[in-house]
Write a structure and sequence with these properties.
By secondary structure, the chain is an alpha+beta fold. The protein has three domains: 116 residues, 3-Layer(aba) Sandwich (Rossmann fold); 112 residues, no CATH class; 105 residues, ATP-grasp fold, B domain (D-amino Acid Aminotransferase, Chain A, domain 1), CATH 3.30.470. The chain contains eleven helices and 15 strands. The protein has a six-stranded antiparallel β-sheet with strand order 5-10-6-7-8-9, with helices on one face. Strands 13-12-11-14-15 form a five-stranded antiparallel β-sheet. It has a four-stranded parallel β-sheet with strand order 2-1-3-4, with helices on both faces. The longest helix has 20 residues. The mean pLDDT is 91. Pfam families: DUF6815 (PF20668). InterPro entries: DUF6815. It comes from Campylobacter vicugnae. This is Cj0069 family protein.
């Protein structure tokens, strides 16, 4: 083995420090060096990825110098994401250890991962993904009424409050809590008329809008357009008010748990810092019941999301619910793995970087040693 790891970063972006790097990149590189390995950063731009000769040079250099790569490109920092994934895929095909494999990033990070897990105890069975016909064909999904937003959403909303999540965006943009103005109308109809009065609250900033169902659905069609266009429709869980629980995972190991409590009052349900949520950082042992259950579900998650190796750094977000016996249960709301940061809390960063380095060495050694 070469005992060298390449860290891919995008040039520029709001996630960078004064040195041009993400704040968590160099701590990982330095932690590897302290353990007798080496790490180096290769910066990518859209211009480089569009240039076949430049991309080939990076491919050949990485293949000759490294045992594997770690992707630290924040979604949105590269417009040419497909070309970036093509580069990573070619490196994996040539034998490098991908952390993570690009198809794992797609499989775990896309919102419709929830629908693929709806047959497990992690996600409610009435969780649906909507596409347009072109996107369904592109990703190999047989388009049917259950994937048709216009036909299906008036039926699901007729039964109770829902949450719609777009596949793109961040910090709660395009995530809507949708409910009827008149709660007495739930379960009156099999499907709602398009002039039904609804209240929509966006997670980005917890603002609410009074709209008609048909007009709101017309607005939401933009989320379905283009590659990776998608909407996920799932039941709204009112206990989100008690807080969202995020597990930060390093490969198979939970590092810490973030309890994210939405702002008080009104329609607030968003658990992002931008919207005023309060964060608390706990040791995994303080959430042992959730952690033990989640770790037991990892083999099923892995098999249902493409059977790729688990991501190197990833998160799973949970919301409390209540089962038919009145007991607490946890519902998976989202998985993130494309470029999860660990700069908060600041006192954890060096410790986590060392743990990342240990995991990198273990993963690469197991596959190539």
């Amino acid at each position: 083995m070469k005992k060298n790891i390449v860290f891919f970063e995008a040039r520029g972006g709001s996630d960078k420090g004064e040195d041009g790097h993400r704040k968590d990149t160099m701590p990982m590189v330095n932690a590897l060096k302290a353990k007798g390995w080496s790490g180096e950063v290769i910066f990518l731009t859209d211009e480089i990825l569009r240039d076949a000769n430049e991309t080939k040079k990076i491919y050949e250099y990485t293949l000759s110098k490294a045992d594997g790569y770690v992707s630290r490109v924040n979604p949105g920092n590269l417009k040419e994401e497909k070309l970036y994934f093509d580069l990573l895929r070619s490196l994996c095909d040539a034998g490098l250890v991908g952390m993570p494999h690009p198809d794992a990033m797609i499989g775990y990070g896309a919102k419709d991962a929830l629908t693929k897990l709806a047959s497990t105890d992690l996600v409610p069975t009435d969780t649906y993904a909507y596409y347009d016909k072109d996107e369904a064909a592109r990703i190999g999904v047989e388009f049917s009424d259950k994937h048709n937003f216009i036909k299906s959403f008036p039926k699901t909303l007729a039964k109770g409050e829902r949450v719609l999540k777009q596949n793109r965006g961040s910090t709660g943009e395009g995530i809507w809590r949708v409910r009827l103005e008149n709660p007495a109308d739930y379960n009156k109809f099999d499907t709602l008329p398009l002039d039904t009065k609804i209240i929509c609250t966006e997670a980005k900033d917890n603002h609410s809008e009074n709209r008609e169902l048909g007009e709101f659905m017309e607005f939401c069609k933009s989320y379905l357009v283009g590659d990776n266009g998608m909407l996920v429709d799932m039941t709204f869980l009112p206990r989100i008010k008690e807080g969202e629980i995020r597990i930060l995972m390093l490969y198979k190991t939970p590092v810490y748990v973030v309890h994210k409590k939405p702002a008080e009052g009104g329609d607030a349900f968003s658990a992002t810092l931008f919207s005023g949520a309060k964060y608390r950082y706990d040791e995994p042992k303080e959430w042992s019941e959730l952690i033990d259950w989640f770790l037991g579900e990892l083999p099923g998650i892995k098999s249902k999301l493409g059977d790729y190796d688990l991501p190197l750094i990833w998160t799973a977000d949970f919301i409390l619910d209540t089962d038919t016996n009145g007991n607490d249960k946890y519902v998976l709301g989202e998985i993130n793995c494309s470029c999860v940061g660990f700069t908060s809390p600041a006192e954890f960063m060096e410790k986590v970087a060392i743990m990342v380095a240990d995991n990198i060495i273990d993963i690469v050694s197991a596959k190539l040693g």
